[in-house]
Design goal:
Helix content: 25-40%
CATH superfamily of the largest domain: Argininosuccinate synthetase, chain A, domain 2
CATH architecture of the largest domain: Alpha-Beta Complex
CATH topology of the largest domain: Argininosuccinate synthetase, chain A, domain 2
Largest sheet: 5 strands, parallel
Oligomer: single chain
């Protein structure tokens, strides 16, 4: 049992483990540095990788308690969908694909720690990024007394070369493509895939085409548009083209059709919570379509002031998620307001997908507030246009008084 000046004695730690080079080195480093038992946790969030090799690698490294879990449905149902009810984007464009996955991983680590009697948790996030904050805010919100071990802030393995040397000296298999510098760093789940670093570090240079893996080049997308219908119940998408689907299955289907049409690419320089700017290239094909569809159904079902209030609150909500405050009381308060607004957000939206673009071309709802009787350019019996005169004069009163004072 090791004793750290920061964390105190540690007996057992739950590690968020991908099976890759970094977390495999972390696994062995925890065993050596802390002389503690390690429990590995590997989550399938739809990253598109086979997870059984991670189990086999953990077994090979002597791990007795190994958790490999398919969390795709929970991820979309309890994290992605609540976020999309708010039409959430960070800094105007980013759909928060990495940010929204971290609280679920943190939650399961804390649950596994409780189930296994572990007194610590660990992650592979570096000391420069947002993920260390997101993981650890989640840990502390759910277990205030948990010990957190962040190896990248403690060890001296500060380069790819040092990591590989450590791995080879401790008989940790190193994939051939890891023996050189990786061209960029990737994070993936069912909502998105992101790329950062190396060839992307200079924001003046266009991202090379090989960065993209979930979307075809918009120029190479079909020359004929694709039309789809997305049905909603209480703000959540429930069916595509009349086919009822589970949350994860629905997002998977949207990813396929949107990716084939070149939709969802984003090249962004963003402001990290830790203070620096970073450049990332994101692909969020299904999420991009889902956002357009949700705003489309809200346009006919939400009251004007309710919609405007949501739009005012959304940047604050997005910032909370980006910065790692998913389990904060203020995020939960905002979520209650958002969910209240979705009670009558029901119906169907027709979308046109074409060469990187998505457009809403039709919306229907049993709870629609849209009245053709009121908006028609033809004669009607429900709206007296003379009423507008008093409405305008009352709204102009303060403007007239202000001008009269100036004169």
């Amino acid at each position: 049992m090791s004793k750290s000046a920061k964390s105190g004695p540690v007996k057992k730690v739950v590690l968020a483990y991908s099976g890759g080079l970094d977390t495999s080195v972390i696994l062995r480093w925890l065993q050596d540095e802390y002389n503690c038992e390690v429990v590995t946790f590997t989550a399938d969030l739809g990253q598109g990788e086979e997870l059984e090799p991670a189990r086999a690698k953990a077994e090979m490294m002597g791990i007795k308690e190994i958790y490999v879990e398919d969390l795709r449905e929970e991820f979309v149902r309890d994290y992605v969908f609540p976020m999309f009810r708010a039409n959430t984007v960070y800094e105007g464009v980013y759909l928060l694909g990495t940010s929204i996955a971290r609280p679920l991983i943190a939650k399961r680590q804390i649950e596994i720690a409780k189930a296994t009697g572990a007194d610590a948790v660990s992650h592979g996030a570096t000391g420069k990024g947002n993920d260390q904050v997101r993981f650890e805010l989640g840990y502390y919100a759910l277990n205030p007394n948990i010990t957190v071990i962040a190896p990248w802030r403690e060890w001296d393995l500060n380069s790819r070369t040092r990591l590989i040397e450590y791995a080879e000296s401790h008989q940790i298999p190193v994939p051939k493509d890891k023996r050189g510098e990786a061209p960029f760093s990737v994070d993936a789940n069912l909502l998105h895939i992101s790329a950062e670093g190396k060839v992307l570090e200079d924001p003046a240079d266009e991202a090379p085409e090989y960065i993209y893996s979930r979307t075809v080049r918009p120029e190479d997308a079909p020359d004929k548009p694709t039309y789809i219908d997305v049905a909603f119940e209480k703000g959540d998408a429930v069916a595509i083209d009349g086919d009822p689907l589970s949350p994860a299955s629905l997002l998977t289907r949207l990813n396929e059709v949107a990716g084939a049409n070149g939709i969802g690419r984003l090249d962004l320089v963003e402001n990290r919570f830790v203070g620096m700017k970073s450049r990332g290239v994101y692909e969020t094909p299904g999420g991009t379509v889902l956002l357009a569809a949700h705003r489309g159904i809200e346009s006919i079902t939400l009251d004007r002031e309710a919609m405007h209030l949501k739009d005012e609150l959304m940047p604050r909500y997005a910032k909370l998620i980006y910065n790692g405050f998913w389990f904060s009381p203020e995020r939960e308060m905002l979520q209650a307001l958002i969910d209240k607004s979705q009670e009558r957000v029901n119906g169907s939206v027709r979308l046109k997908l074409y060469k990187g673009g998505v457009s809403v071309v039709g919306r229907t709802s049993p709870d629609s507030l849209y009245s053709m009787e009121h908006v028609t350019f033809e004669a009607d019996t429900v709206y007296d246009q003379r009423d507008a005169e008093g409405f305008i004069k009352l709204n102009a009163l303060r403007l007239r008084l202000a001008r009269m004072r100036e004169d």
